[in-house]
Amino acid sequence: MNLKFVLNDYVFIWNLLFQASVNSDIHAFKQKLWKNYRHCYEDMFTEKNNLLKDPKNYIPNDDTIYDMIKKTDMYRKIYDETELFRLSIMEVWDQNKKEIMEILKSLLRIDIKIYHVLVVHPKLDIVEMEVVKNRRVNTIVYGRKRKGETPLEVLVQIISSVLKKEIKSYSWYQEQYREFVDAVVELLIDNEFYTRLSKESKYLRGDPTLSFLKKQIYPYLLMYLGATRSEFPKYMKRDKIAFDINLYRYESFLASANVLEFIRFCIQNQRKIIQISRLEIR
Question: Which residue of 50, 131, 211, 236 has the lowest C-beta tally within 10 Å?
Answer without folding.
Answer: 131
